[in-house]
Amino acid sequence: MKDRPERPKVVIIGGGFGGLYAAKALSNEAVEVTLIDRKNHHTFQPLLYQVALAVLSPGEIASPLRHILRKARNVQTLLGEVTGFDTTARRVKLLDGAELGYDYLIVAAGARHAYFGHDEWEGDAPGLKTIEDAVEIRSRLLLAFETAERAALLTGRQTLVNFAVVGGGPTGVELAGAIADLARLALAKDFKAIDTTTARVRLYEGLPRILGTFSEESSRRATQQLQELGVEVCTDSMVTAVEPGRIKVAAQWIAADVTLWATGVAASSIGKELGVETDRAGRVLIEPDLSVPGHRELFVIGDLSVLTDTSGKRVPGLAAAATQQGKAAAENILRDLHGDTRLPFTYKDRGSMATVGRHRAVAEFGNRKYSGLFAWLLWSVVHVFLLIGFRSRLAVMWQWVWAYLTRAGSSPLITEYQQTHSHATPTEHAPTPAGSKGAAVTKQ
């Protein structure tokens, strides 16, 4: 048996906000850190929808983990997929059969889409969590217009292009507003046989209002701004089925050339491999110091965890919360090593923001609420400031300025064309009922 290294070994699983900021907090400390992720880069998820809508390119919101952590002499990054754990022997198991020992383990594997028992819907209603998701969504959106243009040129008949966004949270609101902008501004002059401005964009929410975590005032303002863009905001409704080219609303089928999923979150399945208690969504129940009950060396943070903090509030599944938890877990490890008492975690709510299209947004900071252009400028500054890497900030700021002045984004490219692509085929077989109201799946 090999001797234990003089410096404790910390293994971090996941290069998202929680894992990355834990690694940064442990940089150049008296520990050896290994950060494991299936991808070699960190993705700034709040801007993924802008990649999906061809405003930004993938490289402008992603940065290699090795580059981000290049100045941390004690941090190694490992490309790999974790498949299991031996918490008794303190070992992490990888897909290729390799194993890593640890003294402390931080699991920040994040979350995936939840389809409420209907995983078969994912192929027809993709969600937005990764760069690959964003590129796929971008291709589907652009291909819907290309298919309509092709049909108009070959048959002389124009078909209405229909988009459906399921879920009225920040991601759904941002997607719906951005699709409307894409159709009415960015692509308006690019197509000759069809009028892209007539595209129908619907946002479906199962609750009485969108942006349920925001105040009623911000929700109302967001609804108004979406409607100004031409988005149909459909609330108090439920989707009962999703198929290629259409969704079912109660007993009626509604045409949808592209359906996007922006509701429901399920914790990464890796949480169940820990052999500890989880809730119905697969999230691990953790102690106030972010460790797992009975395993002080094991921390679970971010979307994979569930915690009511010292203020008595449930920690939200937001990037800001994951970032704070990553720093707090690292701090508690260092406090252990220094012989100090661990500190319980308290989430610091620094406000909420959501964009609603070009120069439209809502923002809340305590009792202060903003909307419109000023809120959009606040959102832009905050998100550019939070981007990892100075070059990324410059690139994104320049791209936004260019898009704002020219009403154009990055190159709207389709990297693969399939004539039989079911998600872009005009849905003449599923006409939209006159005056019908869309619907969304509510959380169970």
Q: What this model shows, in words?
A:
- With 444 residues, the chain is an alpha/beta fold.
- It folds into 2 domains: 9-114 and 265-338, FAD/NAD(P)-binding domain, CATH 3.50.50; 119-263 and 351-424, FAD/NAD(P)-binding domain, CATH 3.50.50.
- It is built from 9 helices and 25 strands.
- α1 packs parallel to α7 (319-338) and α8 packs antiparallel against α9 (390-406).
- The radius of gyration is 23 Å and the shape is elongated.
Q: Short description, anyone?
A:
The chain is of the alpha/beta class. 28% of the residues lie in helices and 23% in strands.
Q: Strands across the major sheet, in which order? A: 5-2-1-9-21-20
Structural class given helices, strands, pairing? alpha/beta
Number of strands: 25
Task: Give the end-to-end Cα distance, rounded to a whole number of Å.
Answer: 49 Å
Shape: elongated
Major sheet characteristics: 6 strands, mixed
By CATH, the topology of the largest domain is FAD/NAD(P)-binding domain
Rg on CA atoms, Å: 23 Å
**Helix proportion of residues, in percent?**
25-40%
For the record, the CATH class of the largest domain is Alpha Beta
The averaged pLDDT comes out at 87
Task: Give the arrangement of secondary structure elements.
Elements: E1 9-13, H1 17-25, E2 32-37, E3 41-43, H2 48-52, E4 62-64, H3 65-68, E5 75-79, E6 82-86, E7 91-94, E8 99-101, E9 104-107, E10 111-113, H4 131-155, E11 162-166, H5 170-186, E12 200-204, H6 216-228, E13 231-234, E14 239-243, E15 246-249, E16 252-255, E17 258-261, E18 265-267, E19 284-285, E20 291-292, E21 295-300, E22 305-306, H7 319-338, E23 352-355, E24 361-365, E25 368-371, H8 373-386, H9 390-406
Parallel strand pairs: 1-2, 1-9, 2-5, 9-21, 11-12, 11-17, 12-13, 19-22
Antiparallel strand pairs: 3-4, 6-7, 7-8, 10-18, 14-15, 15-16, 20-21, 23-24, 24-25
